[in-house]
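for the record, two folds in this file. i put them one after another cuz i was lazy. first one right below, seq on top, C-alpha cells after. the second one comes after a little note so u can tell where it starts
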Amino acid sequence: MQAVGVVVRTMNSARYVAASIESVLSQSTPPGDVVVIDGGSTDGTLHILSSFGDRVRVMRQRRSGLAGAAQDGVDAIALPFIAFQDSDDLWPRERLHDMLSALEQHPEWDGVMGQVEHFVSPDLAPIDASRFDVPEGLQPGVGLPSMVVRRSVFHRAGELRDGLSAGEYIEWSDRAVRAGVRIEPVATLCVRRRVHLDNFTRRPESKRDYLRAVREVMARRRRPHEAPPP
C-alpha cells in the first residue's frame, strides 16, 4: 500500500489536539509522514505537540488562512498521497487503510471522499451541549478532512486558495473538476467531527469566507472557457 502524508492544521488547539493526532498515528495503516502546521498558538498547543517527538513534524504556518495552512502542509510532503486532519477531530482506526485500498482498486481515480459522523464533545457542560443540533448517522463528506488524494492533483488543479479559512474546498474542488480531477465518494467513515464551542464555523469570518469562495466559483462559471489557474 502506497505511503500517505497527513497535514494537520492547528491554532490554539490544546484541548483536543493530542487526541486528534493520536487518532492519526494509531491508524492500522500508519501514515508515512505527519506534518502539523501551527498558526501561532499561544495556549500550550506547541508544548503538547513536542510530546510526540519525531513522530510528527511541526512547522510554523507561512501562508494565510486555513487553506494556506493546508497548502503549507502539501508543500512539505513528498509522498504520493495526501490526507488532511483538523486538530479537534478524530479518525477511525481503519480510515487510511480503507481509503487507500479504494484508490489502489481504482487507479483511474484521483481521490476519494469518505463519510462523516458528527458528535458533541463530551467535555461540554449540558447547557452548552444543548445548543447544538447535530445530524444523526453518517453524512456525506464535503471538505479536506474527508478526503485522500494523489499529491499530483495539486499540480493539475492548482494550490488551495491562500487566505480562505472557510469554503476552501468549495473553491478548490471547482478548479479540480475543471482540470479533470476525479474524486469519488466511498462508503467509509473517515472522520468523527467534534462539535464544540470554538468550531471555526461558528465565527462570523467563516460566513465571510464561504461567501468569498462561492463568489469566486460563480464568477468562474460565468467564464466557462477560461483555463483553471496553475
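(here's the note) second protein begins now
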Amino acid sequence: MDLTTPFPESHERRAELLLLAVVSIWALNAPFAKYGLGGLDIWVFNGIRFTVASLLLLGIFLWRNTWVPVIRSDWPKLIGLGLLGNFFYQLFYIFGLNMTTAGNSAVLLATSPLWTALLSAWIHKGKVFPQQWFGMLASFVGIAMIIIGSGKKLAFGSEAIVGDLLSLGAAILWGLNTNLLKPLLSRYSAMQISVVTIGVGAVCLIVAALPDAMAHSWSSVEPVFYAIPVVSGAFSNAIAVVLFSYGIKIIGPSRSANYSNLIPVIAFVAAYLTLHEEVSLIQVIGAGVTVAGVWIARR
C-alpha cells in the first residue's frame, strides 16, 4: 500500500480511540509495575514480562493471522527494531530513572513526540504543520506544569547528568523506533512485526536476567509479585504495542506519538482517584493544557 494514500475517516477515528486505550494501559501500568518491582529483581521482572508478551503475541498470531514471508533484506530491520524498541529502550529508561530524579526523567521522556516529529520529517521527508508543532509544544508545557505542581524537584544538576542523558536517549530511541516501524507496516501486519520485535527483546532480556534469576530465591516471593509482571506483560508489552503499531499505520508516527503525552495526565487522575493524592490548581491546568495540545496536534 502507498504510504501517502489516506485512510477513510472512520479508520482514523477507530485508530484514535484505540490509541486512547493504549495510553490508558501504559499510564495505569506505571504504578502497577512499580508495586511489582518492590518484590522482584528488576531484571527478573522484565524477563517475565517480555516472556509472557512474546508467547501471548505468538499464540494470538498463530490463531488469527497468516505469516507473510519476510523479504531477506527486512530481517535485519526487524531484528534491529526488536533491539531498539524492546531492549535498548528498556535499558535507557530503567537505568536513567534510577540515576536521575523522577521529575527529570518524566520531562525528558515527554519530549519523545518532538523527536518523533523531527525524525519523521528527516526520515520520511514529511511536513510537520505549524499547528502540530504548537500542539506538541503545548502538551510538553502541560506535562511540565503537572510535574511542577506535584512538588517534585526538577534538578538538572551535574550529579544526575548521566541519568538525564539516558532518559533523553530513551525518548530519542522511542521516536526513532516509531518512525522506522512505518515502512515495514506497509508490507507486514502490526501483529507479525510485534511477534518478531518483542520476541527479539524477550530473548535479550531473558539472557540479561539469567544471572539474577539463578541467584533469585523464587519460593520466598509472594505469588502476587509473579502475577503482576504476567499481567503487565500481557497488556502493556503485548496488546498495547500491537494497537500502537496500528495507530502508526493509520494516522502516522507524529500524531500517534503525541498521544503519549496523555499518559501522565491519566496517571495523575488515577493516582488521585485511587490513592487520594492532593491535587494542586497548577496540575489541573497542566492536565487541561496537555489534552488541548493533543487535540490541536491531531487536527
